[in-house]
């Protein structure tokens, strides 16, 4: 196991704890010439929270790798603040609304914090300009290319976190990220998935459980995936279709025209929710280029990845839905 005998991983902050974001000058003093601390960028969109008191939403001890699919990766000394997401204002209007990472060095416990010094507008403007300059460049083709926490996440969390590493579960429990039964469920699902993957390599078909599919047992179909449009508007109430219906719209890679459907999304099948927004512009985390979707996808109010079957990942990525996966319940008044 990862921990030495008799030692436990440090948990500096806990879920629900009130903290204060340090001043722009204090945070800038922690950053290198690339505007980063431990390869994690401090983004210009974060400056608006300097000096404010907010609560810890989750301790960001790990992060799922959505770029190379390497699994869970270890994040050091960071938290997510409750409901604090990037508005994309300095990243071309990106609509991903990623949950922001805050290094421990950028915050402090609110209790006993010194009185907030009146901010210097000129100094803040200088910091904003510096960070905004770092966040965007123009490539040789004249395209804007962006840097943000999402594009740099593999550098900020370079080590793959094995399922067997006990420290992550200790931190989850002690920080309030997850309870005992949630941790046990995630661990059992992880073990089951590894068995399923191994079974497809070493066992004959008749000995495999559900054909070797991982938990959730999602399976797409061969051929071109169908399209569908409801022309949904913000505020409309919709219902997520049953998993069996959605699987008919997926290819063998569980994609519908490039947009994935996964086991965490399948947990919400049958749920009703209101349309929060339509997404048509998003930064590609692999390249930093802006993607303009030919077929906008839908974000539903309150529906995010909860990491239930993904080692209780605290990243809370917004789930994107094709309209063909939804059905209208009613229209807004």
Give a structural overview.
The chain has helices at 24-28, 121-135, 153-156, 167-175, 180-202, 243-247, 263-266; strands at residues 18-21, 36-37, 40-41, 53-59, 62-64, 72-74, 78-85, 99-103, 107-109, 136-138, 144-146, 237-240, 255-256, 259-260, 272-283, 290-300, 326-330. The longest helix has 23 residues, at 180-202. By secondary structure, the protein is α+β, with helices and mostly antiparallel strands. It contains seven helices and 17 strands. The protein starts with 17 loop residues before the first strand and ends with a strand. It has two domains: 18-156, no CATH class; 216-330, SH3 type barrels, CATH 2.30.30. A hairpin with a 6-residue loop joins β15 (272-283) and β16 (290-300). It is 20% helix and 24% strand. The model has no long low-confidence stretch (mean pLDDT 91). The strands form six sheets. Strands 8-7-4-1-9 form a five-stranded antiparallel sheet.
Number of helices: 7
Mean pLDDT: 91
Strand order of the largest sheet: 8-7-4-1-9
Main sheet summary: 5 strands, antiparallel
